[in-house]
Please model this.
Amino acid sequence: MPILTEWCVRRKTLPVVGDLVFSLQASGEAITDMSLGKIVRAALLAIDFEAQDMSPRVLRNTYCRRLLLAGRNRDEVGKLLGLASTRTCDRIRATIDAQL
Model:
């Protein structure tokens, strides 16, 4: 929470590009697909997380997994993730079920 609060304060000092909280980098530049990948990779490395895939997909899958473990159903999780289908939720649910 402290980091998000700090970012929200900083965000108010930057030019308005859209209504997304994270539409700008701390430098004031717009976030692109490439810069988002770099931001996520840097954040994962900062917490000593290393995997074959160091993309934003890791964050999406982690969020999905946590929602499913918390008892949310796949349709609800799919909507929260903005997915067109529930295939990702089904695939991640299968990894959870395999561990049980």
